[in-house]
Amino acid sequence: MSRRARSVAAVLFAAVAVLLPVASWAADGNAPLLAYGARVAGDDARTRLVIEFDRNPEYSIHYVANPVRVIIDLPETSFGLKPESLEPRGLFDAIRYGGMGEGASRLVLSAKGPTEVTHAEVKPEEDGKGFRLVIDAERIDQARFDKLLGDQQWTGTVRAAKTDRPTLAPAKVSGAFVIAVDAGHGGIDTGAIGTVTKTEEKHVTLDFARDLVATLNREAGIEAFLTRDADEFLSLPQRVQIARQKSANLFISVHADTLKQKDIRGATVYTISDKASDHLAADLAARENLSDEIAGIPLESEPAEVADILIDLTRRETQAFSVNLARSVVSSFEGQIGLINNPHRHAGFRVLQAPDVPSILLELGFMSNKEDEKQLLDPVWRKKVSELLAVAVRRYRQAGVANGG
User: Fold this and answer.
1) pLDDT score of 29
2) How big, in percent rounded to 5, are the helix, strand and coil portions of the chain?
3) What are the backbone dihedrals phi and psi of residue 152, each rounded to the nearest 5 degrees, phi first?
4) Which of 206, 12, 199, 212 has the alpha carbon at shortest distance from 97?
5) How many Cα atoms occupy the beta-carbon half-sphere of 362 within 13 Å?
6) Which of 30, 173, 313, 379 is deepest in the core (most CB within 10 A)?
7) 48 burial class (0-12, 13-18, 19+ CB within 10 angstroms)?
């Protein structure tokens, strides 16, 4: 079997390192890199990571603290490594990889403590058919790690992943009711994993979000759009910004979580609150709020406007509208699809913090429950739920109009 035929994959097992020089990479139109092999060896003092690519990989390495992570930025790369090849060991306790938007990919290596990449080198394969990226990492003391952080010139952004998303809100069609449908997770952030099929949550949410947008756009006077329409990573602040830039009247974030209790199933609708309604809501919000950390994005890299939003919780009026929307969704679902006990819950979800856009987070079901997982992958079930959501939105709009909103 040829290397290209073997599923592409990769894990750049690095540790915190000084910013290594990176050449301007891959011209537009080039096919993604293929990462087709990897191996990791070492102990708690030193660890080596080797990743095999079909072409010479241009890369850069950075550090993030609290927790310690090593960030390896790459051109767009296709990954298809067997999970066992990415087993964390030695200095590292977690390895994640994936897309960071068009033209860029990233590996995030979570370290057990202060770590430095002491050597990084690309070598041609002996058969001349590929290249190896070799990363050597060592445990260091905190003072050395603090110096590495201070010396690097890195803001957490990915140059190749920048998009041409508008910075100003586009003009709405006269009278249009605009809805942002946000498919949770994406790219490097896979989300939950199905118990039976091992399907990743990021694909489930995008499939449903596409169905929902199509259904909503059949409603008179509604313009629905996706915050992401591909397997790409968007930070939580980016999702909020996109909704606000496009003057959304509603924001619906779609998810499908997993729980340790396999018997719990059913849909849940969440709104924002500085105090969680219960432990399940608090735990879910904590997991969802880790999305940016998983992708290796430091909080200080967020745009100033969004940082202000994070400090300022949603205005009371907007929060009240969000609660009304959640109640409308629960009412539409009752007797039609399975709901969890107390289906309207609340917690501090960062993705719901737009101050001027009523927002809900919809957990369609649990990937940890085999019955829910089967439904989540069923196009007929998705269509039914989309139609019920459209009914809920219609009722919400009608109530707003009746109250002069």
Assistant:
1) 46
2) 30, 30, 40
3) -75, 145
4) 12
5) 28
6) 313
7) middle
Residue 271, classed as helix, strand or coil, is strand
Q: CB under 8 Å to 83, separation ≥6 — which residues?
A: none
Candidates 195, 377, 369, 192; CA nearest to 266 is 369
Q: Which residue has the higher pLDDT, 82 or 349?
A: 349
Verify cis geometry, omega within 30 degrees of 0, for the bond prior to 67: yes
Place of tokens 């537009």: 28
Which pTM was predicted?
Answer: 0.81
Neighbours of 93 (CB within 10 A): 13
Distance (Å, whole) CA 94 – CA 11:
11
The tens digit of pLDDT for each residue in 316-338 reads 788 899 999 999 999 999 999 99
Of residues 172 and 32, more confidently modeled? 32
Residue identified by tokens 């009412």 is 331
**How many whole angstroms separate alpha carbon 98 and alpha carbon 243?**
24
- CA dist 327 and 241 (Å) reads 25
For 109, the token pair is 């290596």
